[in-house]
Design a protein that fits this description.
Blueprint: H1 29-38, H2 44-58, H3 62-66, H4 73-78, H5 86-92, E1 100-104, E2 108-109, E3 113-114, E4 117-121
Antiparallel strand pairs: 1-4, 2-3
């Protein structure tokens, strides 16, 4: 598909755990939503998991990424269910050896939701 110029997009979150959601305290819903996206916050395990994911992606450690259930507790907390994680694996499967990897939107909000994204450039 890449050779035909088709853009491939995967959507999900590396860190996605509603059980540890911690919304900012605000006077009203509008202020709460603003604080949610303008004041990033990560539980320590979420920050650790996000960093581990970036290191595994950067080093092409697909074996570990695929066997995430065997990784440490921070990863288990980050992926309580796989539906938001698996799209990343499918997207990484399209990576060519010479592709440049670039992370962006590298923030965690509400304590347990990583918005970290990446792009692969030929």
């Amino acid at each position: 598909m890449r050779k035909k110029g088709i853009l491939i997009i995967g959507s999900g979150n590396m860190v996605h755990n509603f059980s540890y959601l911690q919304l900012p305290k605000a006077k009203n819903a509008a202020d709460n939503m603003s604080a949610l996206f303008n004041q990033p916050f990560a539980h320590p395990w979420a920050a650790d998991a996000n960093q581990s994911f970036k290191e595994m992606i950067s080093s092409n450690n697909y074996q570990a990424l695929s066997n995430y259930k065997q990784l440490d507790k921070s990863i288990q907390l980050a992926i309580p269910t796989p539906e938001h994680y698996l799209p990343m694996l499918y997207t990484l499967a399209t990576k060519d050896r010479d592709d440049k990897l670039e992370f962006f939107n590298d923030i965690t909000i509400a304590g347990s939701f990583s918005m970290t994204s990446f792009i692969l450039r030929a």
